[in-house]
Amino acid sequence: MLGENHSIHHEFPEQHDLIDRLVVENLHFKKIVDEYNLLDKEIRGIEMRDSPIDDVTFNQMKKKRGQLKDEAYQMLLKHS
C-alpha cells in the first residue's frame, strides 16, 4: 500500500525494547536505523504526494531501504 509506515519499530514491533536499547548502546545500529527511517520517510512522502521521480531512482531507494532493514534485522538477531 502506498504511503504505508515501514519504520523499524513498525516492522519489528516484538523487538521494540531491543531496538531502543541498541539505538542507545550501539552507534552502528543507530546509524542504520536513522538512515533507514529517513529513507522510509522520503519514500512515503514521494508515494503520498505522487511526486515525480524516475523509476530507477525510486527502485534504488526502495532497494537500499530493504538492505538497511536486513542489516538491522541481522543485528537484532545477534543481540536477541
Summarize the structure.
This protein is mostly helical and 80 residues long.
Rounded mean pLDDT score:
92
Overall 3D shape: elongated
Order of helices and strands: HHHH
Contiguous uncertain segments of 5+ residues: none
Q: How many structural domains does the protein architecture include?
A: 1
Structural class: mainly alpha
Instruction: Estimate percent helicity.
Output: over 70%
So how many helices?
4
Computed Rg = 13 Å
Strand content: under 5%
Count the beta strands: 0
Ends distance: 30 Å
List the main descriptive attributes of the protein structure presented here.
mainly alpha, 4 helices, elongated, single chain, 80 residues
Q: Would you give an account of this structure?
A:
By secondary structure, the protein is an all-alpha fold. The chain has one domain (8-79). The protein is 78% helix and 0% strand. The protein contains four helices and no strands. The chain has helices spanning 8-11, 16-25, 27-49, 55-79. The model has no long low-confidence stretch (mean pLDDT 92).
Layout of secondary structure:
Layout: H1 8-11, H2 16-25, H3 27-49, H4 55-79
